[in-house]
Design brief:
It is a single chain. With about 210 residues, this protein is of the alpha/beta class. The protein has two domains: about 55 residues, no CATH class; about 140 residues, SPOUT methyltransferase, trefoil knot domain (Alpha/beta knot). It has eight helices and seven strands, in the order H-H-H-E-H-E-H-E-H-E-E-E-H-E-H. The chain has a seven-stranded parallel sheet.
């Protein structure tokens, strides 16, 4: 059996300047055109259910996931969910974290793989994974994000706004990175920091703009 429509289109997106919604419509249009042989059909995103859209997005997600622990500001978690959709993260682990602010997600929570998980279950799940802790503490050895070489299928872990990543979770981190800063402030909003790390992964893996 030859390659599927999804495989053909996904592999041809170089450089990748299209959004997930654009890719979804291209895939659906190709499927309809091949099935109906009708060049006048032009589907819209609203023609499909959220589950159909999510299924296609899952086919083209990038091989990295996000994890957040103890986020106290529901708006921050909502913003992380929104940004994770923009960069097509695979999964979002909400570790011992309360709910998110729906308006901050801009509706993207309906399309993302959000997994609520306890700290104990996350530790068990992540012990054999490439967990990358994003933390800046003087007592922890870390590497600058500038020079960091991302491992395969990483899970980027962020802690609470006040206390950071707890030691129990730092123990499962195979890597710890920091974002260099040069002003008076010595830390960043967790939602902003997560977006910087996701962009860095994409920039280093798809440096031709894919």
């Amino acid at each position: 059996m030859g390659a599927s429509i999804k495989d053909i289109i996904r592999d041809s997106l170089e450089p990748r300047g299209l959004s997930g919604g654009d890719v979804f419509l291209i895939i659906k249009a190709a499927e309809i055109l091949i099935k109906e042989d009708d060049m006048t059909i032009a589907p819209k995103l609203s023609d499909f259910t959220k589950s159909e859209i999510k299924e296609v997005l899952n086919e083209i997600r990038h091989p990295f996931s996000m994890a957040v622990w103890g986020i106290e500001n529901a708006f921050n978690l909502g913003a992380i969910i929104r940004t994770s959709n923009a960069f097509l993260a695979d999964k979002i682990y909400a570790v011992d974290t309360d709910g998110y602010y729906p308006k901050a997600c801009m509706g993207m929570d309906k399309y993302e793989n959000i997994i609520a998980i306890s700290i104990m279950d996350f530790v068990l799940m992540a012990k054999d994974r490439n967990v990358v802790g994003c933390e800046k503490r003087p007592d922890i050895k870390s590497e600058s994000l500038y020079s960091f070489k991302h491992p395969e299928h990483p899970i980027f872990l962020f802690g609470s706004e006040k206390t950071g990543i707890p030691n129990e979770l730092l123990e499962v981190c195979k890597f710890v990175v920091t974002i260099p800063m040069y002003g008076l402030i010595n830390d960043l909003n967790v939602a902003l920091a997560s977006g910087i790390v996701m962009y860095d992964w994409l920039n280093k893996n798809y440096n031709k703009g894919r």
